[in-house]
Amino acid sequence: xxxxxxxxxxxxxxxxxxxxxxxxxxxxxxxxxxxxxxxxxxxxxxxxxxxxxxxxxxxxxxxxxxxxxxxxxxxxxxxxxxxxxxxxxxxxxxxxxxxxxxxxxxxxxxxxxxxxxxxxxxxxxxxxxxxxxxxxxxxxxxxxxxxxxxxxxxxxxxxxxxxxxxxxxxxxxxxxxxxxxxxxxxxxxxxxxxxxxxxxxxxxxxxxxxxxxxxxxxxxxxxxxxxxxxxxxxxxxxxxxxxxxxxxxxxxxxxxxxxxxxxxxxxxxxxxxxxxxxxxxxxxxxxxxxxxxxxxxxxxxxxxxxxxxxxxxxxxxxxxxxxxxxxxxxxxxxxxxxxxxxxxxxxxxxxxxxxxxxxxxxxxxxxxxxxxxxxxxxxxxxxxxxxxxxxxxxxxxxxxxxxxxxxxxxxxxxxxxxxxxxxxxxxxxxxxxxxxxxxxxxxxxxxxxxxxxxxxxxxxxxxxxxxxxxxxxxxxxxxxxxxxxxxxxxxxxxxxxxxxxxxxxxxxxxxxxxxxxxxxxxxxxxxxxxxxxxxxxxxxxxxxxxxxxxxxxxxxxxxxxxxxxxxxxxxxxxxxxxxxxxxxxxxxxxxxxxxxxxxxxxxxxxxxxxxxxxxxxxxxxxxxxxxxxxxxxxxxxxxxxxxxxxxxxxxxxxxxxxxxxxxxxxxxxxxxxxxxxxxxxxxxxxxxxxxxxxxxxxxxxxxxxxxxxxxxxxxxxxxxxxxxxxxxxxxxxxxxxxxxxxxxxxxxxxxxxxxxxxxxxxxxxxxxxxxx
Amino acid sequence: xxxxxxxxxxxxxxxxxxxxxxxxxxxxxxxxxxxxxxxxxxxxxxxxxxxxxxxxxxxxxxxxxxxxxxxxxxxxxxxxxxxxxxxxxxxxxxxxxxxxxxxxxxxxxxxxxxxxxxxxxxxxxxxxxxxxxxxxxxxxxxxxxxxxxxxxxxxxxxxxxxxxxxxxxxxxxxxxxxxxxxxxxxxxxxxxxxxxxxxxxxxxxxxxxxxxxxxxxxxxxxxxxxxxxxxxxxxxxxxxxxxxxxxxxxxxxxxxxxxxxxxxxxxxxxxxxxxxxxxxxxxxxxxxxxxxxxxxxxxxxxxxxxxxxxxxxx
Lengths: 772, 314
Hints:
The complex is a heterodimer.
Chain A: H1 4-27, E1 34-42, E2 53-56, E3 62-64, E4 70-76, E5 79-86, E6 93-99, E7 102-105, E8 108-110, E9 136-138, H2 141-146, H3 155-159, E10 165-166, E11 176-177, E12 185-189, E13 192-193, E14 198-199, E15 204-205, E16 212-218, E17 232-238, E18 247-253, E19 256-267, E20 270-281, H4 284-291, E21 301-314, E22 319-335, E23 340-360, E24 363-382, E25 385-404, E26 410-429, E27 432-455, E28 458-469, E29 474-487, E30 491-502, E31 504-509, E32 512-520, E33 528-539, E34 545-562, E35 578-594, E36 599-613, E37 643-654, E38 657-666, E39 670-671, E40 676-679, E41 691-694, E42 701-702, E43 706-719, E44 723-732, E45 740-746, E46 753-758, E47 763-771
Parallel strand pairs in A: 1-7, 1-8, 12-17
Antiparallel strand pairs in A: 1-4, 2-3, 2-5, 5-6, 9-16, 10-11, 12-13, 14-15, 16-17, 18-19, 18-47, 19-20, 20-21, 21-22, 22-23, 23-24, 24-25, 25-26, 26-27, 27-28, 28-29, 29-30, 30-33, 31-32, 33-34, 34-35, 35-36, 36-37, 37-38, 38-43, 39-42, 40-41, 43-44, 44-47, 45-46
Chain B: H1 2-19, E1 31-38, E2 46-50, E3 52-53, E4 70-76, E5 82-90, E6 96-99, E7 115-121, E8 128-133, E9 140-142, E10 148-149, E11 158-161, E12 172-179, H2 193-201, H3 207-218, E13 219-221, E14 225-226, E15 231-232, E16 238-241, E17 251-260, H4 262-275, E18 296-312
Parallel strand pairs in B: 1-18, 10-18
Antiparallel strand pairs in B: 1-2, 2-6, 4-5, 4-7, 5-6, 7-8, 9-11, 11-16, 12-13, 12-14, 12-17, 15-16, 17-18
């Protein structure tokens, strides 16, 4: 018998279907019109630009380029029209056209003018239309490279500065977005799912900023074109490479060094570009020096590397082919006292083959075949006793998306994404197999999404996504809708609703990502689901200024996690390995940006609450149970923070110097302060004391507020006449605030002593990048 | 107008967040029960105490003991009827309750696969109740080859035991190793190499830590291990290899396999999660799961089989 959530999905889906049908009916009544389409590119490199804006001068009407950098403006009245092409960091370009009925192909190259000689941002203003979808943030890679960071520029640590995005601690780059755990964010690299986006056991993310072209963060209420995760999406596209000339770059940092090569390609008249960007840690001298000291536990070796490569070919004016790959790995080998050693290899490999075709004047097709594998292979040997783990997540998929833009008032997109995911986990202990789980699943997701403009200032986006997951034979319908009302080109109010389903869950620890294990639904263990509503206001009160406010509320049902107390899973039914709970989150996010002038930056504030509840289930006893009533109660997870202020300021100092400041103030995270203790007199199984801590409820206390200020200086110039250089000098945590990560309890003291484990102290950072 | 509406919603959300408070209850003393029965052995004493505030001094010997309780142990039939009842009385040792046995009667022994209920009534506290089902007994049919050379090729001790049984689930074991020669005065020169390197890594001035390590290493135990992880022989017995890492000392050892009940299974697994890393965030400390209604602690049971082995240096 269908459950109530299924029935409510179906009811809403019916309404959405009516909306989906309304647009095409209208589109068919449109008289003969003109269409303009084409690619928008960077004039210097020939790279296509994603989400560039094309507006009809004097109106609020326009469109944006898709993920291939292609735009279509349909339903135009024949005659003279002026189109304005703009993209953040590029000079606007206006083209006046005398349109005839039919289609005009117009590719446009924009000139990059992010900073002038005095370090002043001269152009970054964008029409309100560009920010159409609710909850979406485009992440500036230029800013990522200038924001001070520990040892290495990092995309995810920069994203952590955005409203609604939180970090667990200084040592983790994982993203906790709008009250969701890290596994609730879908991470795509060139349309390929990335299952463990971390290096250095979570300290920073795997994405090499030298290789990235575009990053788009959907914090919530994301459209029907995406699926598979409860909360959010990070869609990353690698650069295609310079189509005009050979280019090389070299970067040297405290932790790693980078090299990038790119250039044009011509294979039998087929033109295109290629790019290779590689990065490797350079910690060996530091480790060698540390091994000479008395410090124990220094690895015999540690390194990580990653390689991004991409080849893009223009098969014709209508067809493009791209091949991209990512290879990355971390390896650590640590001796532990005598007669013990621990070795860990973990990493990711992805491959993507993409093909796009302009099928007709107003139909664009984007297809891809992808492969992704995450692996971790820890091996430990302690006193002649070995344990090993072989853990892989292997995903092969095919995806096709078709965009149809028949008129000015209607556009549609349909897509299908299917594949096969295998999750393998094999543990051995002392030469014997101790646990094995091999679970695979076919999956298929399809969607239809329409954008309908019934009036000039109203836009209705409706979508329906159908998800099938083979493991457990689950089918879910996910309606999505967004209604928005624009007020000239300065303000837009948006309301979005969406239902989301997630068939996977991540077994992880906030302090170490090298052992991450993915698990999935199966018979008796249903998918996680979430309903989200978002209300947003986006304004541009003046040229170069933006002020956004968003409110959200989301439910989280059927959350499944590995039982944290489980000491041995051998022989247990799969569904008995998990605890199942629910949760909710709501919040208010405000973002103020100044995008032009000598001083630019952003100020953000987030008011947020998130809660979880895990009652007893099967062998799982439940947590946070009221002693008197026996009821299991909602509690805040550790990453719950009520207030969160962030400031990022960039100042052009002249003579190619830029000053960057990033400051954060956050109310403290939740933790459990034990109220009482007890102990047993004896332990029939060993000499270890059986002590216990007791608190009426879980995570009722708050750590002291977290705050930190990082500063950095960047100098650009010519390096002995043969290369452009960028020198970065940074200081993290300038006033050496010892933020607390967590408290630990020493039972060796009486009474128990509570001591704080602190986070990063003041840290310098220096990096040099050469561009040949 | 619409912007005002949004501002109003924002204020409403802020108010909601400020109302969505989550506070702890004030601390209160709770009764802590400690009674662990071994199949076929005499019914054990029951220890009663209370929790103490986290900031007060505590040792198991000086904890607040409960001396005025009424304690009764019952053996139940399948329908919950009382088959046998054993009253307990407070002893000279504060907080300890022993079974009251008539003169000339032996102390009742714990019956395998039987269900027991413990009733504790303490003035000023709610009634405390707990139940356990005793795991079935099992025996060692093939002891390990002894002596065995530490980490010697083909010399890893293996114990072969008959299967135990527990209603509704597979058997869960804990394996314990007692270095018998080291019980009274642990000798660091008898430590195996890995244990010795840990011992050597303590600061020389930190005698307390060194002593604690030596003492804890005398009698150690494995995590909770499921029966399904072991090879089943054609005759139904289980072959259990004992990992070398479990031996911290050379010399004569007692090896015990203990099949535990649900109460110990949950108590020990959640107790370990309070002090060792898990998938929980650091600082998130769930309470230990107890089968004691109206209190804390454990009223549990186990069945045990013990054998011996001598480990010699390479």
